[in-house]
Amino acid sequence: MTRIKGEASLSDVHESVDVSRKKIGWKKALAFFGPAYLVSVGYMDPGNWATDLAGGSQFGYSLLWVLLMSNLMALLLQGLSARLGIVRGRDLAQANREAYARPVNLMLYVLAEIAIAACDLAEVLGMAIGIQLLTGLPLIWGVAITVFDTILLLLLQKLGIRKMEAFIIGLIAIIGLSFLVEILIASPAPAAIATGFIPRFVNDNALYIAIGIIGATVMPHNLYLHSALVQTRKINRTREGIKQALKFNFIDSTIALNLAFLVNAAILILAAKVFFEVGYTNVAEIKDAHRLLDELLGKNNKLAPILFALALIAAGQSSTVTGTLAGQIVMEGYLRLRINPWMRRLLTRLLAIIPAILVIAIAGEHEVDSLLVLSQVILSMQLGFAIIPLIHFVSDKKTMGEFAIKPYVQFVAWVVTAILVYLNIRMVLNEAGKVFSQSGNLGWEILIIVGGAAFLGLLGYIIFHPIINKRAKETSITIHPHLEGLQQLTIPAYKKIAVALDFGKHDNTLLAHAIGQGQGNAEYLLIHVVESASARLLGKESDDYETQHDEARLQLYVQQLHEQGLTATCQLGFRHRSEEIIRIINEAQADMLVIGAHRHSGLKDWLYGETINSVRHELKIPILVVNL
């Protein structure tokens, strides 16, 4: 884990796609396309499946208007998110860090992490259900298997952002084609579908499902994600260049999010046609939907359930990539901390796996779909805390200049926010009313009151903070202390420089760098760690051929340095490379280490890169890493 200072959002891929030199035309447009597709997978993840299936099977086509409204909201909000990233070069987490006090940012960070964990919970459960439907593997084992997709994410990040985008688009194609075939098989009536776009709520349960649909569609972590992903494009930072980037990203978002809407609508329509119309209004589980597709679409029709399971796995796998990227953005933006991508992925996945396994082990597999819907309601409750700051930021003419959103866009954005916040508060009051209507729930009542007060207090703060705080703030994500200039410099003189040697072809290079640091006046400590089978077993007592040979080679190096008028000593280590290097340096009280890096990639980077990382974290002295 490292603390970062002023680095760009997703620095590994920041401005890695250069669109500034491409000429006007379809090639330039395609160079911009990609970020919105990574965002759109969050709009068709397994959490959407649970809410869409529940809505379609219980209420027929009547909630299609909620999907359409959610999609329009998503288009507006994702457009604002992309505008923030393109114009200001900030992602939403970085902008929040600049604008709010540290305690508020900490609360916003925790809420964002909860949203990401809730989203990942849906992806874990969805993938596990898909695996079970195809293979028959118990659900709890399918949940455990999902931890291994960490490796897939690592490989994608190694290949670069464009390869990652291509992979995601491929999974989206699998999902879309699967449901296209299933809709053609089910053949719903167009007139019946049209009635679903008339706004109405059948009952309070329909409101709960509708809020779940909104939460599954407009997700807070996607706002963080989009504001960072658009910065992977290197654009001309001119008025014309920014306007062009905004135009192409709007087209990108429109295409990608409308594709996501069609997928969600297809799921709900399929559930309404196959289940609701024949009286199966209690289809609350994805597994039931898979089984009934086989039964209700014809005994000989095995294609629909297979496509259903494959699309479910593709939806979970695609969403898991973007969830990790969002987690990285949130952690770096709010806390200025960076951890290895695989560790971040593992952490996010474990936060999702643990509650999933507990629910399956304690309550049974039949509660999994209820957990899916609950995860989407949790997402919806976080929305206000992401949307409200976003609207403030893109409305601010001091930071956005001429690219600040127009008053009518501000009005629409605030109306959308008011609707979302109102629906969430109404849902919470409905659910809380059930607790207060029963006796013996004093503990829960106090918790609801305290939590509700904190929720409303934080919401009020982020709404009115820009109005109260009129004082202009300097916008900088670097947060460096102010200095007039360089102070008096003290040039270090190293007395004992340790050199870690692996007896490869680069020993001369390492020694040359070490001598350059010491200017010939230092003492040089040559270190080599013996890792033969005998050395690992016997340690210092080892006297095998490799130990003898390594000792002789070290002595030869020392003799050759003496002949050049340099002071040098040597020492062998045994068993564990990094531990021995640390021990020898501490015992010898060396004040600098020179070590080589072989620039491995992929699996070799895991295997061989650990020595430098371990040594770097344990030693307090300067370390010169020489790329070989």
UniProtKB/TrEMBL annotation:
<feature type="transmembrane region" description="Helical">
    <location>
        <begin position="443"/>
        <end position="464"/>
    </location>
</feature>
<keyword id="KW-0769">Symport</keyword>
<keyword id="KW-0406">Ion transport</keyword>
<feature type="transmembrane region" description="Helical">
    <location>
        <begin position="346"/>
        <end position="364"/>
    </location>
</feature>
<protein>
    <recommendedName>
        <fullName>Divalent metal cation transporter MntH</fullName>
    </recommendedName>
</protein>
<keyword id="KW-0812">Transmembrane</keyword>
<dbReference type="Pfam" id="PF01566">
    <property type="entry name" value="Nramp"/>
</dbReference>
<feature type="transmembrane region" description="Helical">
    <location>
        <begin position="106"/>
        <end position="133"/>
    </location>
</feature>
<comment type="function">
    <text>H(+)-stimulated, divalent metal cation uptake system.</text>
</comment>
<feature type="transmembrane region" description="Helical">
    <location>
        <begin position="64"/>
        <end position="86"/>
    </location>
</feature>
<dbReference type="Pfam" id="PF00582">
    <property type="entry name" value="Usp"/>
</dbReference>
<feature type="transmembrane region" description="Helical">
    <location>
        <begin position="139"/>
        <end position="156"/>
    </location>
</feature>
<keyword id="KW-0472">Membrane</keyword>
<feature type="transmembrane region" description="Helical">
    <location>
        <begin position="370"/>
        <end position="391"/>
    </location>
</feature>
<feature type="transmembrane region" description="Helical">
    <location>
        <begin position="303"/>
        <end position="326"/>
    </location>
</feature>
<dbReference type="InterPro" id="IPR001046">
    <property type="entry name" value="NRAMP_fam"/>
</dbReference>
<comment type="similarity">
    <text>Belongs to the NRAMP family.</text>
</comment>
<keyword id="KW-0813">Transport</keyword>
<keyword id="KW-1133">Transmembrane helix</keyword>
<feature type="transmembrane region" description="Helical">
    <location>
        <begin position="206"/>
        <end position="225"/>
    </location>
</feature>
<feature type="transmembrane region" description="Helical">
    <location>
        <begin position="403"/>
        <end position="423"/>
    </location>
</feature>
<feature type="transmembrane region" description="Helical">
    <location>
        <begin position="29"/>
        <end position="44"/>
    </location>
</feature>
<keyword id="KW-1003">Cell membrane</keyword>
<feature type="transmembrane region" description="Helical">
    <location>
        <begin position="246"/>
        <end position="272"/>
    </location>
</feature>
<feature type="transmembrane region" description="Helical">
    <location>
        <begin position="168"/>
        <end position="186"/>
    </location>
</feature>
<feature type="domain" description="UspA">
    <location>
        <begin position="494"/>
        <end position="626"/>
    </location>
</feature>
<dbReference type="InterPro" id="IPR006016">
    <property type="entry name" value="UspA"/>
</dbReference>
<dbReference type="InterPro" id="IPR014729">
    <property type="entry name" value="Rossmann-like_a/b/a_fold"/>
</dbReference>
